[in-house]
Every structure is written in C-alpha cells, then in structure tokens.
Amino acid sequence: MAEMENTWRRTEYETWEEAFHGLAPAVRQQSVRVAAYTQAIYVQACDKNFGKESKEASERMKGKYADLAYKCGMYHQIGKALVPHEYQVWNDSFTEEEQAVYKKYTSDGRILAASLQEQSTRSRDRKKGEFSEQPTKNIPWLMIRESCEQHMERWDGKGYPARKSTVSISPIAQIVGIAKELDRLASETKSEDPFAEAMQILIDQSGTAWNPALIEVLKETRSKCRAIYNKYIYYTAALPKTIPLVEKRKDRPMGLKYRPMISDTAGTVVAYEAVPWFGGVLGRPGETETASEVEEMLIRKKLVEDISKYFLYEAADAVLRIENCQLDLKWVVLRMLPSFYQLNSQLQNFNQLFKDQPINKEKLILTIPADLMANANKNTTALIERYLRNGIKLMPEGYDLAKHAEKLPLEKLKEMGVAHVRFAPEIYMQQETANAINDFRSAGFTVIGGEADSHDTVSWLEACGVSCMSGTISGVMVSEDELIRDSLVRER
C-alpha cells in the first residue's frame, strides 16, 4: 500500500468520459454488460410494479427512466477510477487494508458521481478542498448515486458499505446489484451452460442475498438476459476475448488484417495497423482482395456505410482485446474506405460504437487520404471538421508537400483539429521532407510512418522523429489472434 501511494497520484476528473476511462479495461467491459442487463431487468421490473413500497421508491421505477437505468449500470463502478488499476478488480489475496481500499469504491463512487453532476459547485469547492455531496431532489441524479453506493448491499444485510437490508436498499441499486452478480457468475462459472447455472445460483439465493420479488422479475427476464449473454460473452481457453460486437467467423467474407507498428530500429511495438480484406475472389478460392479493388462495387451496391461500420466495430474490439491482454497500445490505425467520407454524417454510428464498446477514442485512428481532404467540397470539408470536433481521430495519409502543402498547410490542419499525419513514402529520404516532419512535430503533430520496407527507411524515419512506422520490415499482415499471440510472446 505504501508503494502504491508513493507511485500513484489520484486524478481529478472533469467529465464522465474521463472518469470512465480511468477504469481498468476489464472493468469498463464488465460495466457495458451490466448496463445491458440492468436496462432489461429494470424495464420488466417497472411492468411488474417492483420496488414501489414507498412513494420515494416508486418515483425511481418508471418506464421513462429506461435509458437512465442503462447509465446506472454503466457508471455503477465509477468510484474505482479513484484507485490504481490493480485495486479495481477483486483479488482473494488482498490484505484487510487492500480489501478496505477496494470496497471503498462504492461510497467514493457516490461522491464522484455527485461531483460530476454538480459541476459548478464542485469546481468552486474543490479549490478549498472542501467538496462534499450536495442534497438534491433530482431523481436521475439520485438513481445514479444510489446505484454507485448501494449495488453491493444485500437483502439480508450482509453487503457493504452500510449493511443496508430489505427495502432500505434503493430499487435501482437492487437491480444493478443483481445484474452485476449475474454477469460475474456467468463470466466466471465453468460449465456447459454458465448462464443457466448463474441464473439458478441467483434463484437459490432468493430471500437471502436478493429480494424475492426481484428474483421473480429476473425469471421473467431470463430470455432477454440470455440474449445479452449470447451477445457479450465469448471466451476461448487460449486468448482473452472481448465483447464480440461483430462475429469473426472463419468463413466470413471480410475482415481486418493487422500489422505491428514499431517505434524504433529495435522493433518495439507500440501500435497496430488494421487493413480491410475481402474474400470470395471468383474462381480463386482462398484468395482475398483489398478494399481499393472492391470499393467501386461497394459504392454501386450502397454497402459502404454497413461495411465501414463493421470494420469500425471490429477495430474497436481489437483495441479492447489488446488492452485486456495487458499489451502496450498507443493506437490502432484503421485504413478506412475513402468513400466513407462521402457518406452523410455517421456521428450517430460513432456515438453508438463508443457506447457499445467503451474504448478510449484516442486509441482508434482512422486514415483519410490527403488528396480527399485537399480537394474536398464544402459539404465534405464540413463533415470532416465535424468528426474532428467530436473527438474522432482522423489521420491524413499520403501527405505530399508538392500536392498538398498549399491547400492543406500545417496551420489549417491544426485549426481543423488534426493531430496525426502520415507523409507519402515517395517523398521519404529527402531533406525537404525531413524539415517538414520536424515542423509538424514542433507544432504538436504526431507523425506516423508507412511502407517501411528497408532498414534504411526505418533508420531515416526514426532519425526524423516519427512516433512509429509500419511496413514489411515491421511484420507481415496477420489475423487478430496471430497478432496477439506474437505480441504476447515478445512481451514474455
């Protein structure tokens, strides 16, 4: 504990997103699943008049709060963001002191939730070091606070932090609590049907750990919870898996191949490049085509939006899976279809992506051809700027001084919110390019290299200060499983 306190500093969070990303990847992933279970159980509970023993409790059990119930499940562990990652997941080897640190996340979570809700008050009082939760009658605010603080309380009074019992536990906290326990049991139980066994364990605890009325609601929600389990839980004995928002079957007709991106001549891997592939080449079984070879067909058949969404979800899955394997990761750079930027705004899809798969937006970078940016019409330019304003990371690729410096000068890119750039390989090994890379780096840009196909190129890019580079020298294109296996071997 003393070592932890000497090497780790508690963070002051300004937004919900910042606090959520202060959670360990495994905790964020679990929170997404718990949110889905919570919403399903809550909707059924409202239909069955659960949790209406008092007027105060009844106010929290209305169908209009279904989306809020999802947030209650999503943020119920937010208090864990106030301690290091190693203290965010329960460990049976914890000392009594460490157990106390862990369990404190419930009461800390309520205070943190209140502080995020009460922005102006928190900002004023924090300067004095005097912040404490302010009373409120705002039902949504109270539901989130109660979910954070009371979800580990149990019907028989044997929970924590306050050993509340029976109806003194908020109805929404009871629901979040049973949703979390369902997820834990279904995730950890080793049997032919972990979900069925988890359900039976909870049912057997009716009247002890759980409100009997809530157990009846859970029984009626079985099929919906089973569907959530089938959507979100997928494990193999070999490698950690994450939320499979896209189905990565061996016979699927498309997917992503990955290549490590190295940061220096020693071959340190810090990022990964994701490149789409398409199968089903007529008369040539087993062969694949690149995105550029099929993009015209995708445009003609109006498939660009669906295909792009698929690749976005697969790349986001990879980000979380790599993190769950405890591999260092700065970014996954996804080679997007250029025609993606000709679609109408996809912000709604982006927002849903980061809701379904709560990765740090900073870790997913999308390529955009520098030619497209330089020659975009007014509408496309406005769309690109809108993405950048909303935290979507876009990287101009193939930046050529002769072609693009006039229309896309450094200052304009920075003003738009661009933070990453990749120069065209054709202008490598030139003094003018080295000077431009230095200018971009001095202005705060991250320069990423591509097509590093020789030791001379790698050495030149490293000397110019690029953050990382990909190419044949950094490795061949492999599947996600192969990439993670290779990376784990290197880490060992």
How does the overall form come out from the CA principal axes? elongated
Q: Which segments are poorly predicted (pLDDT under 50) over 5 or more consecutive residues?
A: 1-8, 126-131, 234-245
Radius of gyration based on Cα positions = 25 Å
So, the CATH homologous superfamily of the largest domain?
EAL domain
Helix content: 40-55%
Structural class: alpha/beta
Overall number of structural domains: 2
Structural key phrases:
elongated; 9 strands; alpha/beta; TIM Barrel; 2 domains; 492 residues
Give an account of the 3D structure.
The protein is α/β, with parallel strands linked by helices and 492 residues long. It folds into 2 domains: 2-232, Orthogonal Bundle (Hypothetical protein af1432), CATH 1.10.3210.10; 254-491, EAL domain (TIM Barrel, Alpha-Beta Barrel). The chain contains 23 helices and 9 strands. It has helices spanning 2-7, 16-20, 25-47, 55-58, 66-74, 96-103, 105-117, 119-126, 139-150, 171-188, 194-204, 212-220, 222-232, 291-300, 304-324, 347-356, 370-374, 378-389, 401-404, 410-416, 431-442, 455-464, 480-491; strands spanning 254-262, 269-278, 289-290, 331-334, 364-369, 393-399, 420-423, 446-449, 468-469. Strands 1, 2, 3, 4, 5, 6, 7, 8 and 9 form a 9-stranded mixed β-sheet that branches. The protein is elongated. The two termini are 27 Å apart. Residues 1-8, 126-131 and 234-245 have low confidence and may be disordered.
